[in-house]
Amino acid sequence: MAKKKTKRKYKIEWTNHGINFLSVLFGIILAFSLNNWGESRKEQKIANTALFNVKNELEKNLSNIDSVIELNQKQIDMIREYMEIMDNDFEHRFTADERQEFEKKHPGALYENSNRIFFEFDLYQLSDVAWNVALQTGILSSTEYDLAFQLAETYDLQKKTNQMDNELIGDIRNFKHDRQSFRNLLGTVKIAQSFARKLRDEYYPESIDEIKSTY
């Protein structure tokens, strides 16, 4: 006699499946979060290193710019005093007393047996290597807006100051020993000095302090 086949009924434990599914999902989310957290920390570490390098660069520029400003100001004062002595055609010959007095204030400035002066301006040549590296890598996108804006303004003014080096070189190359040449030269140096003083007195210190505040 044939046996009657019976259908087996399987009970699906939906609760266990749901728990297992949620456990797997949670594990995936946790792993993804940890990976993102690790990447974020890595990016932040790189950004901090870049900011540290920029700070060192700004501190070095601040140290160098002060001596350039001081030397160039002495040259400006010397040329102004020289122009007051000379006539419009610059044909005036120094008397012995005038030469002695002038050389006392500015040793070695006058050429021997001549009414011409020797002047020497320093170029600013401010470094922007660390800043350009930071820009090229794009890591400053993770820094605060105010800090990024402050640094951008500082390096923009620094760029203008460095460009004045080229203007100064051009004035010296085209220099003629006449009043107009001296005026052109002084005009260029005075603009450069005003930029440099802003960097020294405002932009550099403020940018350095902003970076330090992020530590």
Outline the structure in words:
By secondary structure, this protein is mainly alpha-helical. The protein has one domain. It is 72% helix and 0% strand. The protein is elongated. The N and C termini lie far apart (89 Å).
Quick structural gist:
This protein is mostly helical and 215 residues long. It has helices spanning 14-85, 96-105, 129-137, 145-173, 179-212.
Search tags:
mainly alpha, elongated, 215 residues, 5 helices
Summarize the topology:
Layout: H1 14-85, H2 96-105, H3 129-137, H4 145-173, H5 179-212
Please give the alpha-carbon distance between the first and last residues: 89 Å
Order of helices and strands: HHHHH
**Mean pLDDT rating:** 82
Strand content: under 5%
Instruction: List how many beta strands DSSP finds.
Output: 0
Write down the domain tally.
Answer: 1
The chain-level structural class is mainly alpha
As a whole number of angstroms, the C-alpha radius of gyration is: 35 Å
Number of helices: 5
Shape: elongated
Which spans have pLDDT < 50 for at least 5 consecutive residues?
A: 1-7
Percent of residues in helices comes to over 70%
The main sheet comes to: none
